[in-house]
TrEMBL record, chain B:
The lineage of its organism: Bacteria, Pseudomonadati, Pseudomonadota, Gammaproteobacteria, Oceanospirillales. The gene is fecD. It comes from Marinomonas pontica. This is Fe3+ dicitrate ABC transporter permease. Keywords: Cell membrane, Membrane, Transmembrane, Transmembrane helix, Transport. It is found in: Cell membrane. Belongs to the binding-protein-dependent transport system permease family. FecCD subfamily. Its main location: membrane. The chain crosses the membrane at residues 57-77, 86-104, 110-130, 137-161, 181-202, 227-248, 268-288, 295-316. It comes from the Bacteria.
Length: 255, 319
């Protein structure tokens, strides 16, 4: 296990949001963090990405405390796409994607042939080639989301941490993103993503982690996690579980 | 390619302005007079070598450094309306200078720049002690503006209660290159060491634009970068203000113009902003000296006349 938490508590100021969480991130899978608003899933994701320092306990990378490892080493292993991003002024799409190569470039940020190849490739995968020379500030919310995703992919890390990556996207781009995540997963990446759509998570992810009030309620395969009792307990919803007729994964229909 | 030709154009404009600054003034010189002015035997030697040359150099140094500071501050505060003024540095330097002029009017003017420099650096230190290294960019900016207003009102209080020294103080506070010479050039030269340090931080400033979370994920330490970049901006601003007084709007307008010309990548933006700042201050000082000779307006008034409408337009547009 490369990434794990040990009695991890995280929060802001005196307010504890994630409480005493012990978690092993299964390697090589697509993992969804699920739970109602304010349950601590984004906070947990940010502490896995070393953005937030633990109040107690620790996050470990292999056997080391994450916060003791060199920043540049971690930048080559863990990439984070936050929920909201600022809109940088006077930056083209290609420039922004190229910033994802920063951990690999020298002090002046000069790109070599390999960097350029990767930038081109991730722009193709996220279908933003046509936008390459536009300003980021001129794009729509969904386009911008894909540009930021491309920047995160350009970082070329074995671990990808995404906070609600589908939020601003239309349905077809949501589906494309989930397919892209599957493809990246087949190439060996471990992907941890916060999602709101339970059916999307059940269909595309291998491992679901369900949180409530800062603690992990249950985790495992979609089949084992997605139950009537769980939906009632965590989301206070009465729902039926059916099998997706196409993907054969479980899906819930609210009563 | 576009960037390259724009930079070349800017460079040409600046060279023309340098020639004009050397040629025009109370006495206008022809090109031949200008060339001969560099020979100690020429009748124009004093005008060129002792008066206009250092002043032109100073306009370039101060203009470039103010513009660079502004770009640095806007870069790490992540607010396009920020400038070194939001750190309270120029107002702090102004307060120190006015304190010296009103409380000790007999002290030699030699001490004025040093006092102003200390005042500016002290103001930055006060801001730092109040905010600490982990505070958000916006908290830093708001605290800085509040402090700047406080220093400004103290300056007003001093000038109103001691009307005898008000003229000198007012002249200094509008920012001017009048009467500055080789001494001032040598005082500001050592601060040029900060320019390559700023360039060295360019890549990191780019990443700060992506937000604290992404920058951290890309391996940049936000507190360290912000401290280093702001320290450079504070040092250069304090140095410039101590020599020329607070030259308004330069640190705000020059970065914006540069960003519109070459975009937001700091490897290109920083040098371009320096060129724009040099050009603007050369232009401001040229107009200030030649609009109604032999009377001179302070260059600070010219930059304000040029800068304020641009600033208003900017505010209007960002709505």
């Amino acid at each position: 296990m490369s990434l794990s938490t040990h009695n991890l508590s995280v929060g802001y100021h005196d307010h504890v949001i994630v409480k005493q969480v012990n978690l092993n991130i299964p390697e090589g899978k697509i993992i969804a963090l699920l739970g109602p608003n304010g349950c601590g899933k984004s906070t947990l994701l940010k502490s896995l990405a070393r953005i937030l320092k633990p109040m107690s306990g620790e996050v470990r990378w292999q056997d080391n405390n994450l916060h003791t490892l060199p920043a540049n080493f971690l930048a080559k292993n863990l990439a984070l796409l936050p929920q909201t991003q600022p809109i940088p002024e006077g930056i083209s799409v290609r420039d922004l994607v190229a910033y994802g190569r920063s951990p690999y470039t020298g002090f002046w940020g000069r790109l070599n042939a390999e960097d350029k190849r990767i930038i081109q490739q991730v722009m193709q995968e996220t279908e933003i080639i046509k936008l390459a020379d536009q300003w980021v500030s001129e794009l729509s919310g969904g386009q911008r989301q894909r540009v930021w995703l491309a920047m995160t992919l350009a970082q070329d890390t074995p671990y990808l941490l995404l906070d609600e990556p589908t939020t601003y996207m239309d349905l077809s781009h949501q589906v494309e993103l989930m397919h892209l995540l599957r493809k990246l997963n087949l190439q060996g990446k471990t992907i941890i993503t916060v999602l709101h759509d339970i059916n999307q998570a059940a269909r595309y992810c291998d491992h679901l982690i369900v949180m409530k009030q800062g603690q992990i309620i249950t985790q495992g395969s979609p089949e084992s996690v997605l139950t009537k009792a769980m939906l009632k307990d965590v989301f206070a919803l009465d729902a039926q579980i059916y099998q997706d007729p196409i993907a054969k994964t479980p899906m819930c229909v609210v009563e | 390619m576009k960037t390259l030709s724009l930079s070349a154009l800017l460079l040409c404009v600046m060279c023309v302005l340098v020639m004009m600054n050397l040629s025009f003034g109370a006495v206008s010189l022809t090109f031949n007079d200008l060339l001969s002015g560099f020979q100690p035997t020429s009748e124009f030697y004093f005008t060129i070598h002792e008066y206009r040359l250092p002043r032109t150099l100073l306009a370039m140094l101060v203009g470039g450094m103010m513009a660079l500071s502004g770009t640095l501050v806007q870069g790490v505060i992540r607010n396009p309306l920020a400038s070194p003024d939001v750190l309270g540095v120029s107002h702090g330097a102004g307060l120190a200078a006015v304190l010296l002029m009103t409380l000790y009017p007999d002290v030699s003017v030699y001490w004025l720049p040093w006092t102003a420099l200390c005042g500016g650096l002290l103001a930055a230190l006060v801001l730092w002690l109040l905010c600490g290294s982990h505070s958000s960019a916006i908290k830093l900016a708001i605290t800085g503006i509040a402090l700047a207003t406080l220093y400004g009102s103290l300056v007003d209080f001093l000038m109103l209660t001691r009307p005898l020294e008000i003229n000198n103080a007012l002249l200094w506070l509008t920012g001017s290159l009048w009467g500055r010479g080789w001494d001032q050039v040598t005082m500001i030269l050592p601060w040029l060491i900060l320019v390559p340090v700023a360039f060295w931080l360019a890549k990191r400033i780019n990443l700060v634009q992506l937000g604290d979370d992404v920058a951290t994920s890309l391996g940049v330490s936000i507190p360290v970068t912000r401290l280093a970049v702001l320290a450079i901006a504070v040092g250069m601003t304090a140095a410039c203000v101590s020599i020329c007084g607070p030259i308004g709007f330069l640190g705000l307008v020059a970065p914006h113009l540069a960003r519109r010309l070459v975009g937001g990548r700091h490897q290109i933006l920083l040098p371009c902003a320096i060129l724009v700042g040099m050009t603007l201050l050369l232009l401001a000082d040229l107009v200030a000296r030649t609009i109604d000779p032999p009377i001179e307006l302070p260059a600070g008034i010219m930059t304000a006349i040029l800068g304020a409408p641009y600033f208003l337009w900017l505010l209007f547009r960002t709505k």
